[in-house]
Amino acid sequence: MTCRHRSGDPDCSSHPSYLREQERIKFAEIGEALAKRTPNPDDYEVVEVQNLCGNIVMKVQYSSCEDCSFDSMKVMVFLNVDLLAAMKWRRIDPHFDDKPRTEKEAPSPNARFPATHQGWLDAIKYATTRKQPVMRSSDTNSGEGWDK
User: What is the pLDDT of residues 4-16, one digit of tens each?
Assistant: First the structure.
């Protein structure tokens, strides 16, 4: 098929600016779809919490996550976390990472489970059987001072 546009016409599908615009539109659509599947760590409600053996199990609902599975619920386990410290959290990111956090941010979860009844029971079982070593603040990075 022969193009009937004049040379350099930006409305022609072979013109670079037309192609860039189509690419921008496609990326915007992908970004919108991903946003619906990604929980906003600042917009959540703690639905259920258990403090077990110094570990915390939380069921958290992320209302901003329209296309998340399990009705936008996440079941997470945080090992070796004080309940009082957890009550100060204003941000709970359910993703696993090594980013440094402030005291108002939850640490990266140690485990996540499906937000089902069985997932909740599995999370509780995991939390009751795990105890992470506690590092005293006076200890150095030499590895000495880990409680057993």
Answer: 777 767 767 666 6
CB 145 within 8 A of CB 139: yes
In total, how many domains does the chain have?
A: 1
User: For 31-55, what is each residue's pLDDT tens digit?
Assistant: 676 666 678 899 999 999 999 989 9
Question: How many of the other CB atoms lie within 10 Å of CB of 33?
Answer: 11
The residue with tokens 């959290």 is: 89
Residue 35 maps to a domain: no
This model's pTM is above 0.70? no
- Structural tokens at position 121: 């029971």
User: Which range of residues forms the domain containing residue 73?
Assistant: 45-129
Residue 69 lies in a domain: yes
